[in-house]
C-alpha cells in the first residue's frame, strides 16, 4: 500500500525522539553547569578557608603582632602567601577590621569591607561571597587566637572572575559529554526508526489507523469464518463468524488451535497447517466446510489462513430434499405398482375369475396396510413415522424389505424431531445401502423401546456389517465403507453421534450389523 503523503510513522518517531533527546540533553547540560558552578564555588570557599586557617596559625603572624609596626612584617608575608596560593587578596587585620595588609598598599590602615562579626566572636568556619574593594569575591574570615583571646583576623579571598575562569575550563568537558550523549541518542533513535520503518512498511500513523479500521471492519463483516494462525499454530486473529461456528471462548488469541476446545480431529487438522480445500468437519452442533492455505509476505511464511463456511443448513436441506425425493420416489413406485395391481384385478375380472381378483387385491392391501398401521401405532413422532414409511417404499424399490420390530414404541417429546429424523434417517440409509451389498434375502429392521428411563433405537440389516477393528472409527468424520470420496461421504454416523450427544445420549455398534442409540427419556 503506497503512502499518500506526509511523514511516515518511523520518520515522525525519529523527529520526536530527536527533539526529546535534545531538550533532555540541554536540560542536563544546564543542570550540570549549575551543579559544577555550585561545586566550584564550594570548593573555592573551602580552599580559602584552609589557606586562612594555615596563615592564622602561623607563629610569624603572632610574632608580628608584638611588633611596633605589624604591617612591616605581615605585608611581605601576606603577599608571598597570595602569590603562592593564586588568591586575589590576603588581609590580616585587627579584631575591629583595620587592615594591616592588602594587595593595594593604599588600602592599608583602612577598615575591611565585609562581614567580620562571626570571626571576631571566635567562629572558625565563616565564608561568604561579598563585593569588596577588589569587586565580588569568595572569601573566608578566621580569627587569630592567642591564649583564648581573638587578637587578629585573617581574610583570604578569590575574585568571582577568577572562579569563573576556572569554571570555563570545565565547559569543553561538559559540552563534549553532551555531544557524545546526543550522538548516541541520535544513533539509537535512527536504529529504532529504521526497524520501525521495516515493521510498518513506511506507513504513517493515519494510514496505519485507517488500515486497521478497514481491515477490522472487513473481518467482522464477512459471512465466512476466518482464523489466522502463526507458524506455531497459535491463534492470532479470529472474527465473529468463526467464533460463532466454532463456539470459541473469548480468550483464544495466543493459544494453540488444538488447545481451545475444538473437536480433536478438527483441532489436529488446523494445527497441521497443510493446505486443504473444502473439507467437511463436525463441531458440537454444526457442520463446517474448512479451507486452509499458507499466509506469505515478501517470501516469508507467516502462518496459515483458515476459512470456515457453515454447512449445517445446507446439509439439513440436502437431508430434507433426499427425504422428499424418497417420498416422491415412493409415491411414484406405489402409483406404478398400484397401476399394475389394478390391471391385474381388472384382467382377472374380465376372465371371469372374480374370486381370485378379490383375494389378490385384499392380500396386497393387507400387506401395505400392515406396515403403515404398525408404524402409526408404535411411532408417536409424525415426522419419524412418515420417514419410516417413505424409507420402506424406497427400500422395496431397491429389493430390500424394511421391517418394524415387534413391540416397537417411540414416544413423542423425546427430542427435537429434526434430530430424530437425522438419527433414524442416516441409520436407515446406511442399513439399506449395506443390505443391498449382502446376499438375499435382504432386509432392514427398525426397533424402538423404553428401558430404564431411556429410549433405545435399534437398526440392523442383513449386510456384511462392520469389522470389529473399525467399530470406533465408524463414527469418525470421513470414514465410509461405500465407494467414492465425494463431499459428504462418511458423515452419516458422525451426524448421528452429534445429534445423540446434543440430547445427552450415545450411539454404539451393538452387533456386526446393528446400531443402537440411547436417548434419555424426558418426563413431564
Automatic annotation (TrEMBL):
Range of residues in the leader sequence: none
SMART domains from the UniProt entry: HATPase_c
The protein's UniProt keywords, in alphabetical order, are: ATP-binding, Cell membrane, Kinase, Membrane, Nucleotide-binding, Phosphoprotein, Transferase, Transmembrane, Transmembrane helix, Two-component regulatory system
Task: Kindly give the membrane topology term recorded for this protein.
Answer: Multi-pass membrane protein
**What reaction gets catalysed by this protein?**
ATP + protein L-histidine = ADP + protein N-phospho-L-histidine
Alphabetical list of Gene3D superfamilies matching this protein: Histidine kinase-like ATPase, C-terminal domain, PAS domain
InterPro entries in the record: BphY/WalK/GraS-like, HATPase_C_sf, HATPase_dom, His_kinase_dom, PAS-like_dom_sf, sCache_3, Sensor-like_sf, Sig_transdc_His_kin-like_C
Q: Where are the transmembrane segments?
A: 173-192
**Record EC number:** 2.7.13.3
**From the UniProt record, which GO molecular function terms apply?**
kinase activity
The residue ranges of the Histidine kinase domain are 333-523
Q: Give the location in the cell.
A: Cell membrane
Q: What is its main location?
A: membrane
PANTHER family according to UniProt: SENSOR HISTIDINE KINASE GLRK, TWO-COMPONENT HISTIDINE KINASE
User: This protein is called what?
Assistant: Sensor-like histidine kinase SenX3
Protein source organism? Pseudonocardia zijingensis
Amino acid at each position: 500500500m503506497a503512502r499518500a503523503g506526509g511523514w511516515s510513522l518511523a520518520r515522525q518517531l525519529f523527529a520526536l525522539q530527536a527533539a526529546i533527546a535534545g531538550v533532555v540533553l540541554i536540560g542536563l547540560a544546564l543542570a550540570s553547569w549549575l551543579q559544577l558552578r555550585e561545586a566550584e564555588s564550594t570548593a573555592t570557599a573551602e580552599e580559602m578557608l584552609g589557606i586562612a586557617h594555615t596563615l592564622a596559625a602561623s607563629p610569624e603572624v603572632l610574632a608580628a603582632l608584638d611588633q611596633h609596626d605589624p604591617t612591616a612584617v605581615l605585608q611581605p608575608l601576606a603577599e608571598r602567601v597570595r602569590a603562592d596560593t593564586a588568591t586575589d587578596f590576603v588581609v590580616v587585620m585587627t579584631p575591629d577590621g583595620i587592615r594591616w595588609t592588602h594587595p593595594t598598599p593604599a588600602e592599608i590602615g583602612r577598615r575591611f569591607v565585609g562581614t567580620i562579626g562571626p570571626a571576631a566572636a571566635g567562629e572558625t568556619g565563616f565564608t561568604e561571597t561579598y563585593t569588596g574593594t577588589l569587586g565580588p569575591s569568595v572569601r573566608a574570615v578566621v580569627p587569630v587566637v592567642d591564649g583564648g583571646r581573638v587578637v587578629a583576623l585573617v581574610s583570604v579571598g578569590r575574585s568571582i572572575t577568577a572562579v569563573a575562569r576556572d569554571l570555563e575550563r570545565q565547559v569543553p568537558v561538559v559540552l563534549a559529554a553532551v555531544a557524545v550523549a546526543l550522538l548516541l541518542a541520535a544513533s539509537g533513535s535512527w536504529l529504532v526508526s529504521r526497524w520501525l520503518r521495516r515493521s510498518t512498511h513506511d506507513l504513517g500513523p493515519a494510514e496505519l489507523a485507517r488500515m486497521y479500521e478497514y481491515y477490522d471492519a472487513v473481518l467482522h463483516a464477512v459471512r465466512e469464518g476466518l482464523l489466522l494462525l502463526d507458524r506455531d499454530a497459535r491463534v492470532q486473529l479470529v472474527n465473529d463468524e468463526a467464533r460463532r461456528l466454532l463456539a470459541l471462548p473469548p480468550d483464544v488469541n495466543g493459544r494453540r488451535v488444538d488447545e481451545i476446545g475444538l473437536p480433536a480431529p478438527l483441532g489436529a487438522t488446523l494445527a497441521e497447517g497443510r493446505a486443504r480445500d473444502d473439507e467437511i468437519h463436525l463441531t458440537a452442533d454444526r457442520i463446517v466446510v474448512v479451507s486452509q492455505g499458507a499466509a506469505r509476505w515478501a517470501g516469508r511464511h507467516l502462518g496459515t489462513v483458515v476459512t470456515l463456511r457453515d454447512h449445517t443448513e445446507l446439509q439439513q436441506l440436502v437431508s430434507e430434499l433426499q427425504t422428499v425425493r424418497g417420498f416422491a420416489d415412493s409415491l411414484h413406485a406405489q402409483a406404478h405398482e398400484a397401476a399394475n395391481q389394478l390391471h391385474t384385478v381388472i384382467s382377472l375380472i374380465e376372465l371371469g375369475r372374480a374370486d381370485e381378483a378379490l383375494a389378490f387385491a385384499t392380500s396386497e392391501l393387507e400387506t401395505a396396510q400392515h406396515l403403515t398401521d404398525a408404524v402409526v401405532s408404535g411411532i408417536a413422532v409424525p415426522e419419524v413415522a412418515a420417514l419410516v414409511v417413505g424409507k420402506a417404499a424406497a427400500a422395496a424399490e431397491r429389493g430390500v424389505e424394511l421391517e418394524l420390530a415387534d413391540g416397537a414404541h417411540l414416544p413423542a417429546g423425546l427430542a427435537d424431531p429434526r434430530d430424530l429424523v437425522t438419527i433414524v434417517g442416516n441409520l436407515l440409509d446406511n442399513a439399506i445401502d449395506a443390505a443391498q451389498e449382502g446376499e438375499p434375502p435382504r432386509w432392514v429392521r427398525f426397533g424402538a423401546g423404553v428401558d430404564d428411563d431411556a429410549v433405545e433405537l435399534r437398526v440392523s440389516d442383513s449386510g456384511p456389517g462392520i469389522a470389529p477393528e473399525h467399530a470406533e472409527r465408524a463414527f469418525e468424520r470421513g470414514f465410509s465403507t461405500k465407494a467414492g470420496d465425494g463431499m459428504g461421504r462418511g458423515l452419516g454416523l458422525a451426524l448421528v453421534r452429534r445429534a445423540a450427544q446434543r440430547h445427552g445420549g450415545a450411539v454404539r455398534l451393538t452387533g456386526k450389523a446393528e446400531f443402537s442409540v440411547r436417548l434419555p427419556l424426558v418426563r413431564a
